[in-house]
Amino acid sequence: MLIFFELGNTRLKAATLIKGRYEYLGSILHDNMASDGLLEALGLPEGDVAAVYVCSVVDSEANAKFNEWVQGAFKLYPTYLSTQPSCCGIQCGYEAFETFGVDRWMAIIGACAGQNKPTFIVDAGTAITVDVVIEKEHIGGFIVPGLAIMKQSLLDQTALKPEAMKLGDETASGLLATDTGSAVAGGTLYMVAAYINALVGDLEKETGRRFDCLGTGGDFPVIEPLLDKSFDYVEDLTLQGMVEVIESL
Predict the structure, then answer these.
(1) If you average pLDDT over residues 176-190, what whole number do you get?
(2) Is the pLDDT of residue 38 over 90?
(3) Nearest partner of 218 among 112, 100, 102, 127, judged by Cα
(4) What's the mean pLDDT in 1-7?
(5) Catalytic residue among 103, 131, 212, 236
(6) Is 232 known to be catalytic?
(7) pTM of the predicted protein model
């Protein structure tokens, strides 16, 4: 059995590969990682573990704690995947490829596996990233603050109080908000959706191509209803990319 972990800014996701059969196990918040019941919480099956692979965007201290847990649970040291100038037929668009986030790289590989269509990828997590691939070449992308960071910035940089950020009457009719919490939630949501809609439209005009659009990340389901184009939501896109990388070796 091979185990794959995506160690993100907010959540830990896991998947297994057993005799060529992939299974996504789900995700948990970082706060639960110290739990003695982590294996049970993730639903990891029993069996011999041949290797543990990790895609991590956290700091070295958090990685060290995770390494200790892996060694205690599986009696082996995890292998950390990294961004490469090319892999699985995909070319990285960053000249300094080592500075390109490994989570973005794995998501690109997962999104482009088995197909050669122009691809537009949105990962809406703590940060919101966009990456674009045409003819197996990553042509670049963007990074903007995620919804939670946008909301927190208003608390940090204005006189808004945390209690004012609570959502009001969710049954209220009408497009616009009539309380502060709903105004911030709706406003940030529309900002992100408008950004994505405009970017897809501009890219299609500039390139003359129609993009297949994929979304991932915990906030994507709340953004998706406001998007103009149809997106396929793939919760475990990064993990799927990790599996593609390992199977290509």
Answers:
(1) 91
(2) no
(3) 127
(4) 97
(5) 103
(6) no
(7) 0.93
